[in-house]
Amino acid sequence: MPWRAMVAQDLAKVQILADTIHLDHPEEPQVFAERLRLYPEGCLALEEDGRLIGYALTHPWHFGTPPKLNSLLGGIPAGATTYYVHDVALLPEARGKGHAVQAGERLVRHARDAGFGNLSLVAVNNSQAIWERLGFHVTSVPGLEAKLLTYGPGAVLMVRELAQDVS
Questions:
Q1: Which of 88, 92, 127, 141: CA 20 to 30 A from 51?
Q2: How many domains does the chain have?
Q3: Start and end of every N-acetyltransferase domain (predicted)?
Q4: Residue 86 sits in a domain of what CATH number?
C-alpha cells in the first residue's frame, strides 16, 4: 500500500501539494508542522514512484466543534470525542485509483484501535459523495452553521459511527 507515515522531511512537499490542491483553503506551513508534531500517528503521506501525490491529516478532537481552517490547535484536547479528519488530499492524477478508499480504511482502523466511537470531518470542494461512499453521512450540530460557511459553499459536517460498524 502506498500510504505511509508522514515524517518531518515530507512537510515542504505537503505544503506544495496543499497549495496546489486547495486554492480556496490555503494553510500556513506551521499548521501542517503542528499537526505532525501533536499527532504523528494521524499524519499520512501517499507516495507513488518516489513522488508525494497525497497526504492525510487527522487527530482526536471534540465532536461538533471542527477547528477553524488555517489555525493552530495548541494541543490535542483531553477527553476528545471524535477522530477528526482534517484533510485527505490527492493530486488529480492520483484520484480514481482507490487511494481515498485505502486512506479511509486505514483511518477507520486507527480510530477503532484508539477507542473512538466515530470519525468526523467537514466535507469541502464537493467531496461529500466521496465521503458517503466511505460510510460517512451528513449530520448537523445546532449553532455550527456560521462556522461551516467559513469552509466555503456547500461545506457539511459528516460523521461515521463505529460502534456498530464492523468493516
A1: 127
A2: 1
A3: 1-163
A4: 3.40.630.30
